[in-house]
Amino acid sequence: MTDPARPELARRLGTGDAVIVGLSAMIGAGIFAVWGPASAAAGDALLVALGIAAVIALCNATSSAQLAAHHPASGGTYVFGNRVLGPWWGFTAGWGFVIGKTASCAAMAMTFAAYLVPGNVWGQRLAAAVAVAALTLAAVRGITRTAQLARVLLVIALLGLVALLVATSVTTLPDPAPLAPPDGVYGILQGAGLLFFAFAGYARIATLAEEVRTPAAIGRAVLIALGGVLLLYGLTSFALLGTIGGELPGSTAPLADLAAALAVPGLSVGVQIAAGAAALGALLALLTGVSRTALAMARQHDLPHPLATIEPRHRVPARAQLLLGLVVVVIVLVADLRGAIGFSSFGVLVYYTVTNLAALRQPREQRRWPRPLQVLGVIGCLAMAFSLPLGSVIGGAAVLLAGLGYRLLRTRRAGIA
Question: How far apart (Å, rounded) are the C-alpha atoms in residues 144 and 307?
Answer without folding.
Answer: 21
